[in-house]
Amino acid sequence: MKRAVQAFLVATGCVCAPAIAEAHVSIASGPGFANTTQKVTFGVGHGCAGADTYRVRVEIPAGVTSVRPLRSDFGKASVEKDAAGTVTAVVWQKADADALEADIAYYELVVRLKLPDMPWKTLYFPAHQTCRAADGTLSVVDWAALPTATPVDGGEDEPAPAVLVLPARKPGWNKFVVAQAVTDLAATFADAQIVWKGTAAFSANAATLDLIKATAGVTQLTALGASDEIWVKY
What we know:
The protein has helices at 2-12, 185-188, 206-214; strands spanning 25-27, 32-33, 37-44, 52-59, 65-69, 76-81, 87-93, 107-114, 122-124, 127-132, 138-143, 162-166, 173-177, 194-197, 200-202, 219-220, 229-233.
């Protein structure tokens, strides 16, 4: 089966990643990679009750280093540091003259940073979104709820943006041992050509997934458990 799928991938020459749905403030760049410097993109899907997003503050979790926000036409970027000089938050602030009269825009805010050497760990970046109405009224939505937090407000708490840290990888086949359960294979392996566990396989490419389903002796991989050994081709 591996050879058959490899031949199919070579023939098509394309792996299509699924679209990532956006909430108010969420990670739009997908999973990160352990001990690697990379860009993480925060997507601001919409404002607050019709008001435009005016300011975004993102908290940086412990262990994340080399934090440098990219310049954005959204507004001026600045950083907050603790007494040791470690960046603890990044803030983007619009100029008053640039504030829109209504919630009509989607924004992407980018930070270049180095993730810790902690594969299969999920890191949370609590975000605080300030919106400005046409009359100047400000409102704030805190996207900061963690899975371990006690639900309030009827369980409708706004989740903090999260990055799943994957092991460092190389082009071609990679062998991994999964440290925690993974249920969303499409998001975790969006840019992988194929994922194998024993005789089960998964691909975010619909055509490759159809080939997997049609191949005798191969089952569709739908989730991973802790300690599972997998092969992933990028």
